[in-house]
Amino acid sequence: MTTVIKNGTVVTADLTYKADVSVDGGKIAEIGPDLKGDKELDATGCYVMPGGIDPHTHLEMPFMGTYSSDDFESGTRAGLAGGTTMIVDFALPNQGESLLDALKRWDNKSARANCDYSFHMAVTWWGEQVFEDMKTVVQERGINTFKHFLAYKGALMVNDDELFASFSRLAELGATPMVHAENGDVVAELSARLLAEGNTGPEAHAYSRPSQVEGEATNRAIMIADMAGVPLYVVHVSCEEAHEAIRRARMQGKRVWGEPLIQHLTLDESEYFNKDWDHAARRVMSPPFRNKKHQDSLWAGLASGSLSVVATDHCAFTTEQKRFGAGDFTRIPNGTGGLEDRMPMLWTHGVGTGRLTMNEFVAVTSTNIAKILNCYPTKGAILVGADADIVVWDPEKEKTIAAGDQQSAIDYNVFEGHHVKGLPRFTLTRGYVAIHDGEIRTREGYGKFVAREPNAPVNKALSQWKALTAPRPVIRRGIPATGV
Ligand SMILES: NC(=O)NCCC(=O)O
Ligand SMILES: [Zn+2]
Ligand SMILES: [Zn+2]
User: Fold this and answer.
1) pLDDT digits (tens, 9 = 90+) for 190-200
2) pLDDT, position 478
3) In the chain, where the domains are located
4) Which of 28, 58, 348, 412 could form a disulfide with 352 if both were Cys (CB 3.0 to 4.6 A apart)?
5) Are 174 and 138 in contact (CB under 8 A)?
6) Is the entire prediction scored with pTM above 0.90?
7) Could you read off the pLDDT of 159-184 as tens digits, one per residue?
8) Ligand 1: which of 56, 58, 148, 180 to mutate, most ligand atoms within 8 Å of CB?
9) What residues does 106 pair with on adjacent strands?
10) What does this chain do (predicted)?
11) Greatest pairwise CA separation for the chain in angstroms
12) CA-closest residue to ligand 1 atom 5
């Protein structure tokens, strides 16, 4: 059965043109004028774009004594409602647990996904087993990205020697490390001081994580990646100091990508000063929201290309879960939602204000991500043969974001009351119309795992360059006799 998206304007990362798009067997079959099919979707006045890819989610994740409340069913339903057709979630091994056992748990949870998904592997401890498992994860499980936490001391944090060992192993395997870049030692010290001084509320979470802790850790991770000869992906870049480190590295030819979140782009630190404890605690995440100077830096990075993608870090906790931290901000589960709102919020505040072009919007929400994660053009493209993950975007459709209308399982929304203009009319996941003019028609379990090959072009190029410029012994005629 062929579905034709009619009368729309195709918008990709580099082109904008009028065309119909026909879909057959879950793939894009034809792009051109006056196409016919068994079923038609009217895209008059709409943009036909690659579905969004959210490269950073935590669905049903065990964290800080609880589990994040959106699972693969509600999380991917929320994503589709907002025009996102693929997510990449983090498989998180317990201390001492094999990476493959952790993946089994993620396989079980993800069986409920409504759209396609992939995994990043987290490196939460270091040892021979992790070293060995990495090869299987990359070569047999189709995972080529590994996240390291420089924060969360005593829980997920890894030290610099472990970081260098892990990055070096990933260089050998043609995989890419990711980092959560905050200096965990300093955060732990500042947190203890703040608590001792009676700073127990959610605002102290922000005080404990100043932008310097992020700038320092970002720069450190970049230098370690450079020494290990591997590209680097920095998650949730929230401030100028981190952006500056990434910008500088890129100017020097280092292969580094930065990922700001829609939350950091559009919400600021004033949220933590709200007199309502629940309001402030619901917005506790790491890194915390920043001020306008940092937000402007992130927007400039997206426009200039020094920052590459926009994610959500969707890690949603209910108000009840957030209240675990009443009286001690260090116990408030860290994380916020955003899967349903990333695309409309970025369109409204980016394209709607002239900070981004439509093509840049597609690049940072989809195409760049697919390229970096090495699943392009199966994902992230409007091309014949690509998966028909498509959003038909209505630039005139408007709404005011309200928790009561959302797909997410939690009881609030950090974007509550924000007005957005630009929303999906249809969202297709591998050809299936999961969102039909406001109607949710998602199918639990429809989503498939997207395997991603190692040795992406950037990894290959960097390994070649590193091999060429590796330290070599100087060949000498003879060695002088020792003085003894
Ligand atoms: N970001 C956050 O606060 N929670 C999710 C886990 C992480 O990415 O650090
Ligand atoms: Zn993180
Ligand atoms: Zn995260």
Assistant:
1) 999 999 999 99
2) 86
3) 51-383+397-417
4) 348
5) yes
6) yes
7) 999 999 999 999 999 999 999 999 99
8) 58
9) none
10) Catalyzes the hydrolysis of dihydropyrimidines and of the structurally related DL-5-mono-substituted hydantoins, to produce N-carbamoyl-D-amino acids.
11) 91
12) 335
CA dihedral 354, 357, 362, 365 (to 10 degrees): -30
Measure the CA–CA gap between 359 and 15, rounded to whole angstroms: 7
Nearest to 425 by CA among 94, 143, 153, 46: 46
Expressed in angstroms and rounded, the spacing between residue 440 Cα and the centre of ligand 3 is: 27
Pick the CATH number of 51-383+397-417 from 1.10.600.10, 3.30.2130.10, 3.40.50.620, 3.20.20.140: 3.20.20.140
The three-state secondary structure class of 42 is strand
CA nearest neighbour of 373 among 83, 27, 142, 134: 142
Average pLDDT over residues 210-214: 98
pLDDT digits (tens, 9 = 90+) for 5-29: 999 999 999 999 999 999 999 999 9
**How many residues belong to the chain?**
484
Q: Quick one: pLDDT band at residue 352, thresholds 50, 70, 90? A: very high
Bridge partners of 84, per DSSP, are: 52
The helix/strand/coil state of 52 is strand
Query: What average pLDDT does the segment 47-72 reach?
Result: 98
Inform me whether the pLDDT recorded for 294 exceeds 80. Answer: yes
Instruction: Summarize the confidence of residues 332-341 as an average pLDDT.
Output: 98
Hey, what amino acid is at 56? Answer: H
Contact yes or no for 53/88 (Cβ under 8 A): yes
3 state SS of 428:
strand
**Residue 114 CB partners (closer than 8 Å, separation 6+):** 72, 73, 76, 77, 79, 80, 429, 434, 442, 443, 444, 445, 446, 447
Cβ of 57 below 6 Å from ligand 1: no
Burial of 440 (0-12, 13-18, 19+ CB in 10 A): middle
Residue 480 has pLDDT above 90, yes or no: no
Q: Mean pLDDT in the chain? A: 97
Return the sign of the alpha-carbon dihedral for residues 205, 211, 213, 218: positive
Instruction: Tell which residue, 357, 259, 367, 273, has the closest CA to residue 313.
Output: 259
> Which 3 state secondary structure label does DSSP give 171?
helix
Query: Residue 484 above 80 pLDDT?
Result: no
Segment (H or E) for 206: helix 203-207
